[in-house]
Every structure is written in C-alpha cells, then in structure tokens.
Amino acid sequence: MKRLENKVAFITGGSRGIGAAIAKKMATEGADVIFTYLHSAQQAAALVSEIEKAGRRALAIKADNGHAGELSAAVEQAGHVFGHIDILVNNAGMYNGKPFAEHTLEDFNTVIDVNVKAVFVASQAALKFIPAGGRIITIGSCMADRVMGPSATFYSMSKSALLGFTKGLARDIGDRKITANLIQPGPTNTDMNPQDGPHSDWQRSFMAIPEYGSAEDIAAMVVWVASDEAGFVTGAALTIDGGMTV
C-alpha cells in the first residue's frame, strides 16, 4: 500500500521547485494534492495535468501567500472541495538578499508576511479540516542555524522564527494526534538557487558533502514525515543540508 493512500495534501507555493517536487512525490504515494501558485500559471496547469494522469486528484489555486485573506480563502476552498485536509505543507517562501543598511521597513514586512505570517495563517485555517493523525510540515532553511555570509539577515531571522512556531504548535495540537515538524533544507538545485549559479561553489565550500541536494531529496523527507512511519515525530527540526551546519 502507498504511504499516503487516499490522503489529501495542501501545499503552499507548489507550482515549481521544491513545492512541485513535493506535490509529485505525494501524488505517487497516493495523495490528492492542492497547491497554491501566484505567477506560474502555466507550470501550475502542467503539474495538475501530470498528477491527474497519475490517477490522483489535483487542484491549483491562485493565491498570494503574503496576503492573509487570499491564503486563508484558498485553504477554505480546498477543505470544502475535498472534505478534509490530512497534510499541510507550508512551503512558500522568499529570499530578499541585500546589505542590511539597504533594507527598508517594507522589505521587513514583506519577508515576514511570506515566510512567517503565512505559516500561521495557513496552519490555523487548515486545522479546521485536519483530522486526528494529520500533519503540519513547514519548510524552513538551514540558515536558521548557520548564516555563512552577509546579506541574509531578514531571511535567516524569518526562518529562525519557524522553529519556535513549530515547537509551540506541536504542543498546541498534540492532544489531537496531529504532528508539527520543520524541515530545514540546505543548498538545493532549483531555479532560485541553481547548482551552477554564481554563488554555488561558495555554498559547496561549507558542506561536508560538497554537492547540492535535489528537490526530490527534500520531497522524500517530507513524504516520510507525512507518513504513518513518522507518527511519533513532532516538534522536530529535521535538517537536510549535506552537512552545511555540522
């Protein structure tokens, strides 16, 4: 039997990169998948088609994850259309790297809205539809634990906040037999951080295994955390970074 047979998963920012890899992996493991997208309409439609061809239901919802009303409405739509949500994956995130002195209050608010507030909004909205045995999984970053260079202050701050949120949430929902966990990727080969990009050799220089991970590597860990095999894992930060933070 597939590990996520007949489960329903909701993924924020699922049309490309790590989010798309998670959506595909969950579908192959038997889940129906709903995901949000903002600008990648063509990629979203292609992903829906791919999942449906694999025999699972899929729905792409256009929503700005930095806009609380749009995100909560998307979760509500998914919950009513599919009847329940077994797995929430808070995947959407943004990176705004520049020297600290150049940041504005607007930059600060935007990063917090997407990387932190959206996790709260989606989690609270989804919990109305998540039954016992459900999962809330948030994608953070190894840069919450180690900042290798300058120009990442806002990003690392926002990703650090997710650990405290996850630990507190695990306490709040544990009596419902719902788990909350944080997955912290390191350098991962996506269009946002390609393995042949201008800073890739520099990033590899910090790693015990000097190779970029793949989006599929991250998806595999997400599926394990979402499965019954990880039912006793909650409030954890699981790092998958090739040894960048060792």
Description of the molecule:
The protein is an alpha/beta fold. The protein has one domain (8-240): NAD(P)-binding Rossmann-like Domain (Rossmann fold), CATH 3.40.50.720. The protein is built from 7 helices and 9 strands, in the order βαβαβαβαβαββαβαβ. The longest helix has 22 residues, at 105-126. The protein is globular. The mean pLDDT is 97.
CATH architectural type: 3-Layer(aba) Sandwich
At the first level of CATH, what is the class? Alpha Beta
- Which residues sit in consecutive blocks of at least 5 with pLDDT less than 50? none
* Strand arrangement in the largest pleated sheet: 3-2-1-4-5-6-9
Q: How many helices in DSSP terms?
A: 7
Strand coverage percent: 15-25%
Main sheet?
7 strands, parallel
Annotation, overall tally of beta strands: 9
Helix % is 40-55%
Name the shape in a single word: globular
CATH superfamily: NAD(P)-binding Rossmann-like Domain
Which structural traits does this protein have?
41% helix; 9 strands; 16% strand; 7 helices; two-stranded parallel sheet; alpha/beta; seven-stranded parallel β-sheet; Rossmann fold; 246 residues
